[in-house]
Amino acid sequence: xxxxxxxxxxxxxxxxxxxxxxxxxxxxxxxxxxxxxxxxxxxxxxxxxxxxxxxxxxxxxxxxxxxxxxxxxxxxxxxxxxxxxxxxxxxxxxxxxxxxxxxxxxxxxxxxxxxxxxxxxxxxxxxxxxxxxxxxxxxxxxxxxxxxxxxxxxxxxxxxxxxxxxxxxxxxxxxxxxxxxxxxxxxxxxxxxxxxxxxxxxxxxxxxxxxxxxxxxxxxx
Length: 221
What we know:
Blueprint: H1 2-5, H2 8-13, H3 17-63, H4 67-76, H5 81-96, H6 104-126, H7 129-161, H8 167-220
Helix pairs in contact: 3-4, 3-7, 3-8, 4-5, 5-6, 5-8, 6-8, 7-8
């Protein structure tokens, strides 16, 4: 019956080779984007959690002028972005600490070490996000390709059967449109996740910059 044509299982059963290929590609994109989302979420959560523990401890160590202890605390919080930045600044500072008077050049060297650490950590945080952006922008077009081919086939069928009217092509067109719907279904979460994660990376960047400027203030004192 006509109604049976429009159940999802019937549509999938009647899909042509191109439509199936498109759905397989979209499934791969979907699995890949979910893997990135889970991995990035865990990475960012660990960075946030460890930074929360790290900040008060290192502040206390520096207040008591215990540089070695501060570096040890940093090494224990390896997943924290703040720990990585602070550690590189402290190690650079410690290398010059033997001279009793801290010169402008030494402060500059520490600043450069901090900037390098921020650049490295920011690049680490951005890893995988370009994949999400690509999936978000291309998945609808992959689905649309499946739809276009499906509609061409549906109209070909209509001309060969010589039976004018929608009933001849309705099944074909509905199957074709499923690929567009699936493309959007894959793309929308990827775009949301990309925007959310990008905001997180920006927030982490601000935190790292603030920490490094606080550390420079500590060195100058």
